[in-house]
Design goal:
By secondary structure, this protein is α+β, with helices and mostly antiparallel strands. Helix content is 36%, strand content 24%. The chain has three domains: 2-67, Uridine Diphospho-n-acetylenolpyruvylglucosamine Reductase, domain 2; 72-187, Uridine Diphospho-n-acetylenolpyruvylglucosamine Reductase, domain 3 (2-Layer Sandwich); 193-304, Enolase-like, domain 1.
Amino acid sequence: MRVAVQSSIQQRHRPKMRDFDYAAPATLQEAVTLFSRHNGAARALAGGTDLIDHVRTGRVTPDVVIDVKRIPELNRLEITPDGLRLGAAVPCWRIYESAEIRESYPALVDACSIIGGIQIQSRASVGGNLCNSGPAADTIPALIAHSAVCVIVGPEGEREVPVEQFCTGPGRNVLQPGEILVEMKLPAPPPRSGSHYRRFIPRNEMDIAVVGVGAAVTLDESGTSLVCGRIAVGAVAPTPLDAVDASNLLAGAPVDDETFQKAAAAARAIAVPIDDMRGTRDYRVHLTGVLTERVLREAVSRAQQAAGA
């Protein structure tokens, strides 16, 4: 009886899903036309792992849901001499099952491999994770570390935005009414490069990162010094952060504990997290430094392995 009463209460307070139209354009131009026509009242459906829940709970109330999975440009996944072209609707499993991507973009593979469970990974896309623009999104620090650029198409044509400039606040980004994220372009990594993404969560059942850190590094021919590196952190600010000062400390620095500790201190310095149920501000700042050191060590180890050291 008690369960039945609780169930009845839950039913009474559950928001009713708002009616919406559905469209499934086959071309990019059709999609742009639809998004422009609805002027901000449309939502893109790729994997739908977040969108469906957001519509059900009333967090978003679109007039139309536009299914973009049939559009060829959004399903592109290819490595060229210039780097990786990753369509916005490509699901996570296609990324981590690619041997070429695992070799060249391991931080991205790390992130895609831990988003939800296997069922979520079969549908969820990196483009959707980016467009949700959550501060704790797993793929965004990895994309920043790999110097990804977003390709956006809208009624005014095409434009490119570095991924570290894409998010403007929790759940907000640079997409204007009528625009759609088409793909991310990741440059080819130089020789003797490695990368890693790691997050901290209290338990396996809790998927949202308390802190997440991504890093990519390139070593010199000896494998004992860093040529350059890039570090990004998530869940410690309203948007994922490009840790520029921490990254700059890596250029020309020796591969040793002192270098990693200096970079960790610089990453901690830009962290401005909140207190919430997943962790206090001080705890998150501390974790930022711990994870930065660990991620750098693994990125260097992978670079050394790639060089055959």
